[in-house]
Specification:
The protein has 10 helices and 4 strands, in the order H-H-E-H-E-E-H-E-H-H-H-H-H-H. With 322 residues, it is an alpha+beta fold. It has 2 domains: 12-38 and 133-307, Multidrug efflux transporter AcrB transmembrane domain (Multidrug efflux transporter AcrB transmembrane fold); 53-126, Alpha-Beta Plaits (2-Layer Sandwich), CATH 3.30.70. The termini are far apart.
Length: 322
């Protein structure tokens, strides 16, 4: 039994609709990024890993509300407090680092002791990252993504042709832009595991795109493929790899959904980013990478045809002058 055994969908014909949808999502993400700059001071919700500062996790024996925590730590002047996992666990964030963290931690312990005398608590962990280290991690994360693009372009240009590499890069940039848009919209915290998830998305998206492109190349080199129109050939290639694409993405999503449901809050953001990336990567390999390849091919063909016409025109003018 084979899923989509006789698939014959006109994917390329739907590329304009898909491109409009993608542009709308990207623009929405950019709007939220600008909104985040105005509201939280940065275009993304950077964690301690990138913004610098300290993180103190507190666990209570009894259930305590976030409102009670804020009231105990100063009300409106309290540092940012978020629930972490269970109802009795909280994370307190501070912009202070170094030796000042110990002072903050002791102050928090005194305030909590005074407010929750009947409920024991413990400091589970304290993390500290200096602002210079956070800025350095931001730049290195960006360089890691940039180098992945460059190496991808070199590999695909060597393995296939330059036009395939350019189309794959366009699709990968599309995937990262949409993923960053979702991160900005839902204010998902960006930490080192999130960057690891984004790099994983790059690899997954490229893998799916290369499968489609490999089939395009096979069909292009076949005797029947040379006589086909490019749009027909690319549609045929997408449909032929559709069962593999759907089954691979489907099984991957099943595993990720299981991790999201039972993996706990520690890997929740990492898993969420991966789920978004798998969905967007599958979509882009069909509706973004393949139409981009067609447009790039037409561009190269047009340049080659104009070059031939110029040569003919120059040859005609030369013979006429003789």
């Amino acid at each position: 039994m084979r899923l989509f055994d006789k698939a014959n969908y006109a994917f390329i014909q739907k590329s304009k609709t898909a491109a409009t949808f993608s542009i709308a999502i990207i623009l929405l993400g950019i709007v939220f990024m600008i909104s985040n700059v105005l509201s939280i001071g940065s275009w993304q919700n950077y964690g301690v890993d990138f913004s610098g500062g300290s993180l103190i996790q507190v666990r209570f024996e009894d259930n305590v509300s976030a409102a009670e925590m804020r009231s105990a730590l100063g009300g409106a002047e309290a540092p940012p407090i978020t629930r972490f996992g269970e109802e009795n666990e909280f994370v307190i964030r501070s912009g202070l680092d170094g030796e000042e963290v110990d002072v903050v931690r002791q102050q928090i312990e005194r305030q909590l002791d005074a407010a929750f005398q009947q409920s024991s608590f413990s400091i589970v962990r304290t993390e500290t990252v200096g602002p210079k280290i956070g800025a350095e991690l931001q730049s290195k994360a960006g360089l890691a993504i940039l180098f992945s693009f460059i190496l991808t372009l070199c590999y695909i240009a060597f393995r296939f042709q330059l036009r395939f590499g350019l189309a794959a890069i366009i699709a990968t940039v599309h995937d990262i832009m949409i993923t960053l848009g979702f991160l900005a919209i839902f204010k998902i915290e960006i930490a080192l595991p999130t960057v690891a998830a984004i790099l994983t998305i790059v690899g997954y998206s490229l893998n799916d795109t290369i499968v489609v492109f490999d089939r395009v190349r096979e069909n292009l080199n076949s005797r029947a493929g040379r006589r086909q129109e490019p749009i027909v050939l690319i549609n045929q290639s997408i449909n032929e790899t559709l069962p593999r694409t759907i089954l691979t993405s489907g099984t991957t999503l099943v595993v990720l959904l299981a991790l999201l449901l039972v993996g706990g809050v520690v890997i929740r953001d990492f898993t969420t980013v991966l789920i978004i990336g798998v969905i967007v990567g599958t979509y882009s390999s069909i509706f973004i990478a393949s139409p981009a390849l067609l447009k790039i091919q037409r561009y190269f063909d047009g340049r080659a045809e104009s070059a031939v016409k110029k040569k003919r025109a120059s040859a005609v003018s030369a013979s006429a002058s003789v």
